Amino acid sequence: MVMTFAPTYEIPSEAMEPTLQGCSVCENDHVVVDKLSYRFGTPQPGDVIVFTAPTAWYMPGATGENDLVKRVIAVGGQTVECRADVGLTVNGKLLTEPYLDPATMEADPKAFPCLGNEFGPVDVPDGRLWVMGDNRTHSADSRTYCRSAVPDIASGLMCTGDPSVGTVSVADVIGKVRAIAFPSARRGLLAAVNPQSGP
After folding, report:
1. Which EC number(s) does the record attach to this protein (predicted)?
2. What is the mean pLDDT of the segment spanning 28-55?
3. Among 78, 91, 144, 171, which residue's CB has the most CB atoms within a 10 Å radius?
4. 193 falls in which pLDDT band (50, 70, 90)?
């Protein structure tokens, strides 16, 4: 029963560090995924989720089942964008993201708020999610697979095209990551952090 509704999932990459550890030279985290968490609700901003990647996200030669783990940044009906002079915002409000660690990335988010190209605004369609990895410079996420209008690409502005392409369907969410089960040194519950709840 426990394994049916709360299976474990091995973190395959460094995309969610430091929250979840996964790399070729370390002991990857194994997390407990609550598959019942959204039976009577939907993913919320800040939730760390496991989902089946959209077909357009499939990587050639990828192992496993194309199940990915990312953090929900924006939900259906919200508008997400990033500008170098402002940072990452949802509905115009700057996000508070204590889970970001400059040590895991190739840039300091204080100096380079977008940690990549500027993007958006993206109006997230109902029933879909905008997701990103905590290790922003090492994560292939909604920013990577979004669609961009050709004139904007030349200026470095991404994700200005069809918003459904870079987003994830709520129907494809497998469950919510509740805890790290292994290795024992990292065992514990995952803290709930809503980046939209800041001042």
Report:
1. 3.4.21.89
2. 94
3. 78
4. very high
According to the 3-state scheme, what is the secondary structure of 65-122?
Answer: CCEEEEEEEEECCCEEEEECCCEEEECCEECCCCCCCHHHCCCCCCCCCCCCCEEEEE
Domains in the chain: ranges and CATH: 8-189 (2.10.109.10)
| Model pTM above 0.90 | yes
pLDDT value of position 59: 62
Distance CA 73, CA 194 (A): 9
H/E element, 4: helix 2-5
Distances (CA, A) of 69 to 14, 160, 193: 11, 24, 16
- Containing H/E element for 3? helix 2-5
Q: With beta carbons less than 8 A apart as the criterion, state whether 11 and 23 touch.
A: no
Q: Which two tokens stand for residue 171?
A: 């129907």
pLDDT tens per residue across span 52-108: 998 878 665 555 568 999 999 999 999 999 999 999 999 999 999 999 999 999 888
**Residue of 123, 141, 124 whose CA lies nearest to 132:** 141
Cα separation, 136 vs 14, in Å, equals 10
